Amino acid sequence: MAAASPAPAPASAGASSEEVVKSKRWLPLESNPDLMNKYAESLGFPTAMYQFHEIFSTEDWALEMIPAPVIAVVFLYPIKDSTEAHRAAEKERIAKDGQEVSDKLYYTKQTIGNACGTIGLLHAIANVSDLTGGDVPLAPGKWWHSFVSKTKDMSADDKAAALEADEELEEEHKKTATDESAAVLETEDVYTHFIAFVQKDGCLYELDGRKDSPINHGASSKDSVLKDSMKVMREFMARDEGEIRFTMLALAPAAE
């Protein structure tokens, strides 16, 4: 399984947003569906209903292996000069042209170093939950339900502050990062990054805590989340031909 891996740092890599300097750093997570499912379940996600499945290829045969419907996708990609250039151009385009963003979308900034794996899960799980108009019930009294309920009406910055102050989540993240089945990383300095794709109100959104806002990627539906997310992920890969540090995880019905 792919892990968040050390790589030569581009000039602007490592920032959670252009204006924020991370004061807290966690251990990086491995992009491993078994670990992600264990982590999600420990915080109250119903893995008997939905689980993370690795997508082995962008080709149709691999997509056909994933149980339908896919309700969210988590994507790991390397941060490089090309990705940062695209991020800057995208920011400029949105500032000029604007974009529509659903008010039902759950989105937080990332202000904790190496927390992108946890934030990717939070973006996926919060947006498919029954607390934000989705269909997945979160266990009352458990972390996902409590945190999403408490923060869903907060600003993205206030959600980030709540995450920084949450000792329970920090401890569960640490347990997952140091799980005996996880790849052992020799450095906390990593230059790969997790993001999530979800569908809300008929549009596909990219949720990346390093960006100023969610990114609207156009029309989507509950039945086309995987296909529409794959189109965007292929664009990421095309910007870095020859790069292999990509991992795709689909949140989909549990395998029988």
From TrEMBL:
Gene3D superfamilies: Peptidase C12, ubiquitin carboxyl-terminal hydrolase. One of its GO terms (cellular component) is cytoplasm. GO terms for biological process: protein deubiquitination; ubiquitin-dependent protein catabolic process. Residues 25-253 form the UCH catalytic domain. Belongs to the peptidase C12 family. Keywords: Hydrolase, Protease, Thiol protease, Ubl conjugation pathway. The lineage of its organism: Eukaryota, Sar, Stramenopiles, Bigyra, Opalozoa. The keyword Hydrolase applies. The active site is at 116 (nucleophile), 193 (proton donor). InterPro entries: Papain-like_cys_pep_sf, Peptidase_C12_UCH, Peptidase_C12_UCH_sf, UCH_AS. The record marks 110 as: Transition state stabilizer. Signal peptide: none annotated. It catalyses: Thiol-dependent hydrolysis of ester, thioester, amide, peptide and isopeptide bonds formed by the C-terminal Gly of ubiquitin (a 76-residue protein attached to proteins as an intracellular targeting signal). The record marks 208 as: Important for enzyme activity. This is Ubiquitin carboxyl-terminal hydrolase. It is an enzyme of class 3 (hydrolase). It comes from Cafeteria roenbergensis. One of its GO terms (molecular function) is cysteine-type deubiquitinase activity. Its EC number is 3.4.19.12.
